[in-house]
Amino acid sequence: MNRAAARSRGLTSVKNVALAATVVAAFAAAEWSVYRAHVLHGHLAAGTQALAELRTRMEQYRADHHTYLTVDGRTVSPCDTTSVAGTFTLACPTLSPASYQLAATGSGPTAGFVYTTDSQGNRHTIRVADGWSRTTPDACWITREDDAC
Fold this sequence. Notes:
The protein is α+β, with helices and mostly antiparallel strands. The chain has one domain (3-127). The chain is 39% helix and 19% strand. The protein contains two helices and five strands, in the order ααβββββ. A five-stranded antiparallel sheet has the order 1-2-3-4-5, with helices on one face. Strand 3 and strand 4 (114-118) form a beta hairpin. It starts with a helix and ends in a 22-residue tail after the last strand. The relative contact order is 0.12.
């Protein structure tokens, strides 16, 4: 048997490596989008968790002081300072003695996401990132593109 006949029976090692690289690249591309969605979900869950914790601090403050507002210079409402939780900035766009609204606004990998809660316990997703196939607002906190209220 000559060399030409031996080569035509199968793939050369270069072709085998190229085929293996193509298969690995295809799997990596598919898994990368799953990984990115998983990481984003973690960021969004951390933001909504921080918003829930701020709401708890507001309710404890009201139970202690009978108002959501700062009582004096030494007793400061949790809403009197802007805080950062991961990639979210927490703020109180609406604050009165008897009610409030809290907001978490995303930045960096969570840019475009805005979540709110209020003194009545309502939770809303005001905005989601560009590219998500959803309309907002939603009457819950959406942390995955396929979530439903």
